[in-house]
Amino acid sequence: MGVAERRERQKAELRDTILAAARRIFIEEGAEALTMRRIAEMIEYSPGTIYLYFESREAIAIQLVREGFEKLVAVIGPAAAVVADPVERIRAIGAAYTEFGIADPETYKLIFMEDAKYVYAAMTPSAGPEPCATDEPGEQAFGVLAQAVAEAVERGLFRPVEAQRTAEALWAGLHGALSLHITCPVMMPEVRAVATIVQESMLAGLRA
Amino acid sequence: MGVAERRERQKAELRDTILAAARRIFIEEGAEALTMRRIAEMIEYSPGTIYLYFESREAIAIQLVREGFEKLVAVIGPAAAVVADPVERIRAIGAAYTEFGIADPETYKLIFMEDAKYVYAAMTPSAGPEPCATDEPGEQAFGVLAQAVAEAVERGLFRPVEAQRTAEALWAGLHGALSLHITCPVMMPEVRAVATIVQESMLAGLRA
DNA sequence: GTTAATAAATAAACACCGTTCACTATCTTT
DNA sequence: AAAGATAGTGAACGGTGTTTATTTATTAAC
Question: What residues approach strand D to within 7 A at the CB?
Answer without folding.
Answer: A 7, 11, 14, 44-49, 52; B 1, 3-4, 6-7, 34-38, 47-48, 51, 56-58
